[in-house]
Amino acid sequence: MTNNPFDLTGKAALVTGGYGVLGGTIAIGLAAAGARVAVLGRRQDLAAAKVDEIRNAGGEAIPLVADVLERDAVRLASDEVQRAWGRIDILVNAAGGNVPRSRNDNRSIFEVPLDAFDEVMRLNLHGTVVPSLVVGEAMARHGRGSIINISSMAATSAISGTLGYSVAKSGIDSFTRWLAMDLARKHGDGIRVNAIAPGFFVSAQNRAVLVDDAGQPTARARAIVQRTPMGRFGRPDELVGAAQWLASDAASFVTGVVIPVDGGFSSFSGV
């Protein structure tokens, strides 16, 4: 036993999008704090590779294959974690991302197909709602659990080219507050729902927008850094502390909040 409220030893975590740049880093960080981590995604090979990375570092992990938009598949994955470890204490909804054909960087918004808007909405908003409801139900039975959603700077500021993504992430902020209220009122103070809003990080999905063919920052990247008081992009590992805190008993009276991890971007007016 430990008196450290940040310690996650013995807790079971499920991380959707758990082999992505941000989700994978959070999965490793939870394991480093003592949690057993289930890495969930659509690709078995990538989930298995992330599990191997966690195990090689001394952690305990299992791979799971499911599409976060398919409720039955998520339920089967949730059941597998509960069979292995008895319960799920932590859910991190890290699956998501932008859909290139939904962007309008170099074209009118009127040219973006509505089905592209629907696709990015489903991936980001529904892809968080579905696992939250499935795993949240299991948490409610035990009366304990921490759900951590991934929001974005696009939820609170209009960022060009990203209408569908922005609307979806705004929905995640609202969903976070709503579910936090509903679960606490109906299932007790042991279940918490919060979100992390990352600032700008270079990932596989946005690298082409932020880094040119010569490896130099694009005009968009330079504009972002200029609006970030710390003057740089974030590192994925800089999300880990917030995730560990929200997952732990150290945040036992924290629910319904969205924590920016953004180098000051959201607090700066630009002047």
Pick out its properties.
Rossmann fold; 7 strands; seven-stranded parallel beta sheet; 2 domains; alpha/beta
Please give a structural write-up.
The structure is a single chain. The chain folds into two domains: 12-199 and 237-260, NAD(P)-binding Rossmann-like Domain (Rossmann fold, 3-Layer(aba) Sandwich), CATH 3.40.50; 203-233, no CATH class. The protein contains eight helices and seven strands; from the N terminus they run E-H-E-H-E-H-E-H-E-H-E-H-H-H-E. It has helices at 21-32, 44-56, 71-85, 114-142, 163-187, 207-210, 219-226, 240-247; strands spanning 12-16, 36-41, 60-65, 90-93, 145-150, 191-198, 258-261. The protein has a seven-stranded parallel sheet, with helices on both faces. Helix 1 links the parallel strand 1 and strand 2 (36-41). Helix 3 runs parallel beside helix 4 (114-142). The protein starts with 11 loop residues before the first strand and ends in a 10-residue tail after the last strand. 44% of the residues are buried.
